[in-house]
Design brief:
This protein has helices at residues 8-16, 67-81, 96-104, 130-139, 145-158, 162-166, 178-183, and strands spanning 2-5, 31-37, 40-48, 53-58, 86-91, 108-116, 119-127. It is of the alpha+beta class.
């Protein structure tokens, strides 16, 4: 296992291994934890964005072998070594494997957003110190109707800078629909 800075060569390697073909958020990370063997990349977990968002992707043939937990745990430890106050993750509640993984590592649900018709995410976080705990508490504001309204407006205004904010740069991401987000508010 290695911790490496993202560069164009690594992005090419991730694409060749089909790690970032469907989920390109790893390409927007500042650094990643990379697990490789003689066959190639098994999986990667990355960290980036203003909100210290983690992303993870495991090559299909290596899923179900504990690699995700191993590299995500190393990502958490590296964040602590680097002095991060907190980390967050966007977790699709329909992806039961991802939900179990992140919950088992101590991520706590902060709020849910129905971004678009088929895009639902639970925003989860881990705080490492007092500053992080304060930030996590502030994020819980979005678990209110008023918070969701403000978040929807902010998302609409900041759509073009998503990769820098939350490492989200997937192809075909629809623009936020304020009415949809508010109509589908769900307190968790």
């Amino acid at each position: 296992m290695k911790i490496v800075k993202i560069d164009s060569n690594l992005i090419d390697e991730l694409r060749t291994a089909n790690i970032s073909t469907n989920m390109k958020s790893l390409e927007s990370c500042e650094w990643i934890v990379l697990e490789k063997n003689e066959e190639g990349i098994e999986g990667a977990a990355g960290m980036g964005g203003v909100f210290h968002v983690s992303g993870i992707q495991i090559a299909e043939k290596f899923r179900g072998k504990g690699i995700g937990k191993k590299i995500q745990n190393e990502l958490i430890n590296e964040c602590i070594r680097r002095g991060y106050s907190f980390i967050t993750v966007f977790n699709d509640p329909r992806n039961k494997t991802s939900v179990q993984l992140h919950d088992s590592l101590g991520y706590k649900k902060l709020f849910r957003i129905h971004y678009a018709k088929n895009i639902v995410n639970d925003v989860k976080g881990i705080a490492f110190d007092k500053k992080g705990r304060l930030f996590i508490q502030l994020l819980r504001f979005f678990n209110t109707k008023t918070g969701t309204i403000l978040l929807a407006i902010a998302l609409k205004m900041l759509h073009s800078v998503f990769p820098a904010l939350i490492i989200y740069n997937e192809d075909g991401l629809p623009k936020p629909d304020i009415k949809w987000i508010i109509k589908n508010f769900e307190k968790i």
